[in-house]
UniProtKB/TrEMBL annotation:
InterPro entries: SPC24-like. It comes from Taxus chinensis (Chinese yew). One of its GO terms (biological process) is regulation of chromosome segregation. This is Uncharacterized protein.
C-alpha cells in the first residue's frame, strides 16, 4: 500500500472518530444538562417549601403584632371611657403608637 494512501486513510479514520466523538458529546451533553436541570428543579422545590414555611411564620408574627395593636387600642378606649388621669392615658397612647409604628415597620420590611 502506498504511504500517502495509508496516511490519508489514517486521517480519514481520525476524522470519522472525531466526528463520532462530537456526535456522542451532543447526545450526552443534553443528558448532563437534563440531569443538572433535575437537580436545580429539586433544589428549587426544596427552597419553595422552606419559603412557604418562612412565609407562614411571618404571617403568624404579623397577626400577633396586629393583635398587640388591637389590644392597645382597646386599652386606650377603655381608659378614655373610665376617665383615667391624663398621665396614664398619655402612657397608654404612647404604647399604642409604638405598637402601630412597629407594625408599620414590620409590614414595610416585608415589601
Amino acid at each position: 500500500m502506498d504511504i500517502a494512501k495509508l496516511h490519508s486513510a489514517q486521517s480519514l479514520d481520525t476524522n470519522v472518530i472525531m466526528s463520532f466523538a462530537d456526535d456522542l458529546c451532543q447526545v450526552f451533553e443534553p443528558a448532563r444538562d437534563i440531569s443538572a436541570l433535575a437537580e436545580v428543579k429539586q433544589e428549587l422545590s426544596r427552597l419553595e417549601s422552606v419559603l412557604e414555611e418562612d412565609w407562614s411564620e411571618v404571617q403568624t408574627i404579623l397577626k400577633d403584632v396586629h393583635g398587640q395593636v388591637l389590644m392597645h387600642e382597646q386599652k386606650v378606649e377603655a381608659a378614655e371611657k373610665e376617665g383615667v388621669d391624663d398621665a396614664t392615658l398619655h402612657a397608654l397612647r404612647t404604647e399604642l403608637e409604638k405598637e402601630q409604628q412597629y407594625e408599620l415597620q414590620f409590614s414595610q420590611e416585608l415589601r
